[in-house]
Amino acid sequence: MRRGLVLAFDTATPIAASALVRDGEVLGERASRAASVLADADDLLRGAGLAPADLDALVVGTGPGSFTGIRIGLAAARGLALALGIPAAGVSTLAALAAASPGGLPVIDAQRREVFTLVDGEPVARSPAELDFEPGTILIGDGAVRYRPELEAAGAEIPPDRDVVHVPRARFHVLLAGDFGDADLVEPIYVRAPDAEKAIA
Amino acid sequence: MRLILGLETSCDETAAALVTHDGDIRSNVVASQAVLHARFGGVVPEVASRRHLELVAPVIREALAEARASLDDVELVAVTRGPGLIGALLVGLSAAKALAWGRGLPLAAVDHLHGHVASLYLEPAPLEPPFLCLLATGGHTLLLDVRARSGYRSVGTTIDDAAGEAFDKGARLLGLGYPGGAALDRLAADGDPEAFDFPVARLDGLDFSFSGVKTALLYAVRALDAGELERRRADLAASYQRAIVRALVERTRAAAEQLGHERIAVVGGVAANSELRASLAEAVLAPLELCTDNAAMIASAARYLTPVAPPGFLELDAYAAA
Ligand SMILES: [Zn+2]
Fold first, then answer.
1. Inter-residue contact B213 to B198 (CB < 8 Å)
2. Tens of pLDDT along B189-214?
3. Cβ-contact A87, A57 below 8 angstroms
């Protein structure tokens, strides 16, 4: 975790998260859509009587999730890092979800009857039926909510649909952020190749 | 220096440019993805969007370096908002918003087609409206009534394929790969443009249709055996090119006459076509490097728009269709 004023946001999932953190203290958090994440950031800064130029570092969610959503966040981080000459760090959306619920397995809706989850710490896309977990494991994320009946039948514990643990919260991105550096080196986690690549592979 | 930073990511070129308020181009960086898409035989939106994300910050840095400028010299950010591939547009728009917001700069959201027209307003030979503009690219074929630099009115369009698309598809039928417009132009130079008669549909009004001529080429190719096809490829290319160019030229002149325009201009990638340049000799043409997608034209268009101050532009969305 980095000291100073840190803006974090994650636009990989349908509910985009942002947070403003100063020296580890959360000054504010927002949840909205990817397209509004910079407007949220502007709100957070104004609420604290601050401006973009006051930022010391950025943390951005790298997915997996919606391809377009991931890019909206990463393009914003690259533009902002360039504008302010500040470093950035990437944190996977799955890791941020898991951090909010220790021992929980993050499960993000990946569309096409699949979910994104972690297997041995690596992000993968799997059908819900293929998920491998001990009975009693807590599953969190919009994928866990979407496939609740079959996952619960397999022994998963899933908090109520409206529980905040199902949505990434950017305070956890700040908590997990390790290597700060050039924003261009923060890579998206797509997991899946473009369909066209598969078609000619 | 007081500069406009332009950013363009609507299709398969990632581009950044620095332009002065007087229309002087200080830098114009275009990272083309054509090679990346060649193996797919066309632009793949997801592949293009991924590449835009990789290139967006590097092209901005390169544009600044080439202009020997820093972000302190930039006082307006201009970005393409649409039309184009939505996922590709969003990369540029998101980066531009963040950059402008971070620097406390205003943002001008530019219509890509207005950008093509505004390529004519750049130094060293800026064009003053009124004029009739043929905008012909891989995605659009439009006849535009231009009365002021701040906009245009569309008076004709294609009802199916764009002219550039017709060239690319014809090139593919002739085994020239993708994108093949330029290769078709080169091959046509060795052929007889009267060898084959490829009819172009004549629509009422000022609209175009190029799907029929493409089908005619397909049938002509199928009617020839392999050896004969090889021998007559140049004739096919020349005749096909002649048919498309003739339709473009006729309609463009008719539109100019109807609207009382004394001057005709041509913008867009198809303006690079040698036969079009020769056939419409009276037309004003944008320099070749400004014909294809670039960011100098986006920065140029921004000079005639009212920019939005921060944070008003943060909720702006991209649009895919004109
Ligand atoms: Zn274009």
1. yes
2. 999 999 999 988 888 899 999 999 99
3. yes
Dihedral sign of CA atoms B87, B89, B91, B97 in order: negative
**Best of A7, A68, A200 to mutate (most B CBs within 10 Å, chain B):** A68
Q: Which of B40, B60, B98 sits opposite A80 (nearest CB)?
A: B98
Asked if residue B257 and residue B146 are part of one domain, the reply reads yes
B227: containing domain: 131-262
**Closest Cα in chain A, distance from residue B181 (Å):** 23
Enumerate the domain spans of chain A.
Answer: 5-93+167-195, 101-164
Q: What does each of the 201 residues of chain A score in pLDDT, given as a tens digit?
A: 567 999 999 999 999 999 999 999 999 999 999 999 999 999 999 999 999 999 999 999 999 999 999 999 999 999 999 999 999 999 999 999 999 999 999 999 999 999 999 999 999 999 999 999 999 999 999 999 999 999 999 999 999 999 999 999 999 999 999 999 999 999 999 999 998 887 765
* Fold for the domain defined by A5-93+167-195: Nucleotidyltransferase; domain 5 (3.30.420)
B48-62 per-position pLDDT tens digit: 999 999 999 999 999
CA dihedral defined by B220, B225, B226, B228, rounded to 10 degrees? Answer: -80
Nearest-Cα residue of chain A relative to residue B58: A184
Q: Verify that B33 and B94 share a domain, yes or no.
A: yes
> Which residue on chain A is closest to B39 by alpha carbon?
A200
- CATH number of the domain encompassing residue B237: 3.30.420.40
Domain count, chain B: 2
Same domain, B158 and B115: no
Verify that B157 and B67 share a domain, yes or no.
no
Determine contact: A50 vs chain B, CB below 8 A: no
